[in-house]
């Protein structure tokens, strides 16, 4: 069996698109997945299965959520190997930074550098970003809520056609831990 993390975008934020984690766990178990757990209230679930791949599992969960809760949620599913590789490839000194300063945006497909050509990196310093494997690393010294670069990176012309969901560094590391093989 492979253990995966499901990353749900935009749920339980600002009182809308409520999706209780207990109900998400029940839904995932009902789809035949084992070892179902959730992390926080902001849309992370971990489960194990011996069928499907990341894309088919994400599509299955997206459809099940829409049928059960009546709204569509973008879902990315990633396995432990990918999540670990993303954490290990961080181009910023993660151990020296507060978790609120470092974020990873996971994408449904590799983002091309051309998508980011209109962003002037110098104009956003000391904030910085780097592209990774189906992800983007963001260093925002004042946190995500105050980040002008994060705002620029989330514009529709950059994310068009992609599912994109962002997690802080603590969550990035926790997902690596939660999806790690036991033993």
What does this structure look like?
The protein has helices at 21-30, 54-69, 80-88, 148-153, 156-159, 169-179; strands spanning 2-8, 34-39, 44-49, 75-79, 102-107, 128-132, 135-139, 164-168. It is an alpha+beta fold. The chain folds into two domains: 2-82, Alpha-Beta Plaits, CATH 3.30.70.1280; 89-179, Alpha-Beta Plaits (2-Layer Sandwich), CATH 3.30.70. It has a four-stranded antiparallel beta sheet, with helices on both faces. A four-stranded antiparallel beta sheet has the order 6-7-5-8. Strand 6 and strand 7 (135-139) form a beta hairpin. Helix 3 packs antiparallel against helix 6 (169-179). The longest helix has 16 residues, at 54-69. 28% of the residues are buried.
Question: SSE layout and pairings?
Answer:
Blueprint: E1 2-8, H1 21-30, E2 34-39, E3 44-49, H2 54-69, E4 75-79, H3 80-88, E5 102-107, E6 128-132, E7 135-139, H4 148-153, H5 156-159, E8 164-168, H6 169-179
Antiparallel strand pairs: 1-3, 1-4, 2-3, 5-7, 5-8, 6-7
Helix pairs in contact: 3-6
InterPro entries: DUF1697
Pfam families: DUF1697
Protein name: DUF1697 domain-containing protein
Short recap of the structure:
The protein is α+β, with helices and mostly antiparallel strands and 183 residues long. Helix content is 31%, strand content 25%. Helix 3 packs antiparallel against helix 6 (169-179).
């Amino acid at each position: 069996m492979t253990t995966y993390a499901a990353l749900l975008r935009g749920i339980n934020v600002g009182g809308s698109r409520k999706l209780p984690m207990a109900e998400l766990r029940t839904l995932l178990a009902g789809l035949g997945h084992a070892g179902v757990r959730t992390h926080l209230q902001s849309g992370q679930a971990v489960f194990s299965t011996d069928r499907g791949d990341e894309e088919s599992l994400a599509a299955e969960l997206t459809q099940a959520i829409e049928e059960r809760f009546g709204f569509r949620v973008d879902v990315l599913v990633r396995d432990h190997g990918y999540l670990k590789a993303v954490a290990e490839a961080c181009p910023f000194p993660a151990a020296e930074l507060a978790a609120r300063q470092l974020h990873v945006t996971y994408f449904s497909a590799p983002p091309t550098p051309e998508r980011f050509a209109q962003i002037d990196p110098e104009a956003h310093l000391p904030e910085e970003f780097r592209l990774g494997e189906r992800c983007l690393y963001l260093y925002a010294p004042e946190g995500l809520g105050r980040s002008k670069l994060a705002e620029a990176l989330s514009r529709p012309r950059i994310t068009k056609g992609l599912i994109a969901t962002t997690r802080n560094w603590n969550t990035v590391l926790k997902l690596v831990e939660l999806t790690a093989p036991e033993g």
